[in-house]
Amino acid sequence: MTLRVAIIGAGPAGIYAADILTRSETPVSVDILERLPAPFGLVRYGVAPDHPRIKEIVKALHRVLAKPEVRLLANVEYGVDVKLDDLRDFYDAVVVATGAMSDRDLGIPGEELSHGAADFVSWYDAHPDVSQDWPLDARSVAVIGVGNVALDVARVLAKTGDEMLTTDIPSHVHYGLWAKTTTDVHVFARRGPAYAKFSPMELRELNHSPNVEVIVHPEGFDVDDHGMAHIAQHKSQKMVLDTLANWVGREPVGKPHRIHLHFAEAPVEIVGDGAVTALRTERTRPLGDGRVEGTGEVTSWDVQAVYRAVGYRSTALPGLPFDDRDAVVPNDEGRVLDLDGEAIPGTYVTGWIKRGPVGLIGHTKSDAAQTVGHLLAETSATAPLREPGDVDAYLAERGVAVATFEHWERLDQHEIALGEAAGRTRIKVGEREEMLRAGRG
Q1: 54 pLDDT above the threshold of 90
Q2: Residue 20: inside a domain, yes or no?
Q3: pTM of the predicted protein model
Q4: Does 425 reside within a domain?
């Protein structure tokens, strides 16, 4: 008998799981439930628009959704339109792949005045659940964090709006970036340059804009013995350090916008009354084991906005246990565990909701393979309502306007047509109702 599987989330993690299921020797029928009217999750709504090469992943994901064993049920919100107990009537197993799109906190005074990087990314990626307005009236901005998201945020803040017209941004994002007043973006790292988490390519791309100058400040640019041992074990870290070292002390060439990279500066307070007026950081020194401590030397930076880019976190889901400290669903290699540490039959997780927001998109494949391996070994056909039409009837009865794969294909063609009319590859649609209308044709 064909195994019926529901996957919650149509991002890379969920679609990779569907792909592995359909490639197995077990006959399967997979429904991917997605809260948004369009699939692809992080690739569509978490990757900076000026990274088209990463968006090439969409082509591979699209091929999985086109498989006859796979159905896309988008615009269906888990926990609102359908609950876990409901899904058990229609599916033999449920795989949760909802990712992580909330921002981690800094834990410093004044943090409530700051912006989360995830929220800003959602704005410039035209997420349908995010307001189309974003405050971009700060002359000088601080970005806290040294990962690729921090670089994306810094780069988008520094580049001109017209530079971004080669991408898929809609008009409201272009106008916001065109009208912004930012001239300087300061990126702060708590540790030294040996521990920067940028990927080499992301870092080098900072230097490609004709309007943006990258300034690496020499203060705090030190590498101790532990740092040298660290980069010796990580080739990409050495490439990052080499690039940064080449940029230290470069003569300015007079570009209108600047990205400043500061190392060994830990944020301690965001200052302001209703609006940011300064960021205070404390110089740190290495302890010889990869950790750092404060020196007591505090600097006040004249900035009018602060962005937190210190990591994403997942959020709790109805009907599932949640580890709030690690921000994951408790699991054993993808098997969801109850409060007693026992595996909940037929319930699995994959992607960042399983292991936390670490690793690149490609790492999600091996993660999904582990989860699917357990699912196939442990699951039998037990759901009482086994026809796809049973799910369709249930959602229709609840008034859910399901967006199918065919809806996505029409929306996809609509966005491409908008782009062609403007001499661009694509223009993304950012309003939910417009997405649904385009999908309906």
Answers
A1: no
A2: yes
A3: 0.93
A4: no
